[in-house]
Amino acid sequence: MTDHGYDEWVEALGTDEAFYLECPDGHGSLPPRRTCPHCGATELTETPLPAEGTVETYTEVHVAGPDFAGQTPYVTAIASFGAVRLTGVLRDATAEGVDVGDTVGVETAENPDTGDATVVFRPR
Amino acid sequence: MNDVRIAGVGLTPFGRQPERTGRDLFAEAALAAREDAGVAREAFEGLHYGNFMGALAERQGHQGPLMAEAAGLDCPATRHESACASAGVAVRHAVQAIRAGEHDVLLAGGMERMTNLPTTEVTESLAIAADELFEVRAGMTFPGAYALMARAYFEEYGGSREDLAHIAVKNHANAVPNEFAQYRREVTVEEAMDSPPVATPLHLFDACPITDGASAVVLVSDDYAEEHGLDAPVRIAGSGQGGDNLALQDREAFSRTPAATEAAEAAYDDAGVGPDDVDVAEVHDCFTIAEVLAVESLGLFEHGEGVSAAREGRTTRDGELPVNLSGGLKAKGHPVGATGGAQIVEMAKLLRGDHVNSDALSDPRVGVTHNAGGTVASAVVHVLEVDR
């Protein structure tokens, strides 16, 4: 399946082209969007995404759907990258090795169960 | 404005009944509600019906007319989908239509058939309530989403897995005498703590079960109840709905659910009551942490205090404010598209005095129901009051 807007965004993660959308008030969001999810503004500008983020919360998932069934247990986290937050799978670390406040980098990697491009965090 | 009265209520037993069709489940609940109400078939002017995953579980869309027919009715019907808040939204639409004077008699409720699918497919189906691109593709499951909220709550306010275990213990104890409940057995804190992890910090006993079931309520205008001499002592005195960004990552905080606060404030304002007037609550405890977030959003406890309310006995059946006397989603079960209606059913009976756990309350006047969709991007709150 092609998801125009999202596909280009996820493929750019981890490269110099990585970006998020910024509205005139500085709110961050992710494409595809025509409106800011925080204030409804329609002028959204592609802005460079910081290379490092901070883990805000995480969970080690033991019961997964079919798309992640071969990877349990795995860690899903939400990390803040300045004006925007991303949800991703943490690789190269177990749940014991991560904590709220840790610094992570972000890139795109393949989901081995589906072949889809997935947001992946790695400890920095 | 026409006041809305609950003329009749009906439920199926909640539990594993994978061989039963959705239409049979809803028919059972609807016929029970119709019998309880004693309203003529010809009087029904519409059905507002909640269902979440029927297109996946039964490959059945367009369920509104199917379910009106199953209920033995000949009237227009609409299916409402707002994830686990589907039936709460359906009830709210019926309430609004009666209040607006457009209708006098409506059926509302919902149904979910789930256990005919294997657990991995149920997990996948429930996840469609989350953001497919930004959450599900990053491995977020439904329990995983609440686990992310639970960890954020612990970070901000404190609290522990043991606090959450006390919520499971309380709700299981409440479900024991409830003939409609899925799990009619007590559990201990130790059992809950020792259960296997689902999505840390949440373990199996923090999660509601996968459930088949249906709920139905007959709602009538005050005028209709009076004209026809109906015995309908419970009114839906307040209704409110709130919304939030769909994806957790776009919320201001993960440790609070402002959509439920918005719904509660609207419902209280509508009914002319406040949190201090509430005698009993049925809240959306799809996970133990969800009960914490619910009672805080409803203004029943301060932020940070809800997590220890069950452990301190404040929300148990003998406590100052019993929460989930039905057993809640945790022990009564959670057929997702039926739950919001089932909460109205349980609360109406608690207030009328014919619920098996009504004896836990002394002259209750005001009850509140809280129904949430997804990670509370949708929330519906109703205030019920009983004539005294």
From TrEMBL, chain A:
<dbReference type="InterPro" id="IPR002878">
    <property type="entry name" value="ChsH2_C"/>
</dbReference>
<protein>
    <submittedName>
        <fullName>Nucleic-acid-binding protein containing a zn-ribbon</fullName>
    </submittedName>
</protein>
<feature type="domain" description="ChsH2 C-terminal OB-fold">
    <location>
        <begin position="47"/>
        <end position="107"/>
    </location>
</feature>
<dbReference type="InterPro" id="IPR012340">
    <property type="entry name" value="NA-bd_OB-fold"/>
</dbReference>
<dbReference type="InterPro" id="IPR052513">
    <property type="entry name" value="Thioester_dehydratase-like"/>
</dbReference>
<dbReference type="Pfam" id="PF01796">
    <property type="entry name" value="OB_ChsH2_C"/>
</dbReference>
From TrEMBL, chain B:
<feature type="domain" description="Thiolase C-terminal">
    <location>
        <begin position="240"/>
        <end position="385"/>
    </location>
</feature>
<dbReference type="GO" id="GO:0016747">
    <property type="term" value="F:acyltransferase activity, transferring groups other than amino-acyl groups"/>
</dbReference>
<keyword id="KW-0808">Transferase</keyword>
<dbReference type="InterPro" id="IPR055140">
    <property type="entry name" value="Thiolase_C_2"/>
</dbReference>
<dbReference type="InterPro" id="IPR016039">
    <property type="entry name" value="Thiolase-like"/>
</dbReference>
<protein>
    <submittedName>
        <fullName>Acetyl-CoA acetyltransferase</fullName>
    </submittedName>
</protein>
<dbReference type="GO" id="GO:0008299">
    <property type="term" value="P:isoprenoid biosynthetic process"/>
</dbReference>
<dbReference type="Pfam" id="PF22691">
    <property type="entry name" value="Thiolase_C_1"/>
</dbReference>
<feature type="domain" description="Thiolase N-terminal">
    <location>
        <begin position="6"/>
        <end position="222"/>
    </location>
</feature>
<dbReference type="Pfam" id="PF00108">
    <property type="entry name" value="Thiolase_N"/>
</dbReference>
<dbReference type="InterPro" id="IPR020616">
    <property type="entry name" value="Thiolase_N"/>
</dbReference>
<dbReference type="InterPro" id="IPR002155">
    <property type="entry name" value="Thiolase"/>
</dbReference>
<keyword id="KW-0414">Isoprene biosynthesis</keyword>
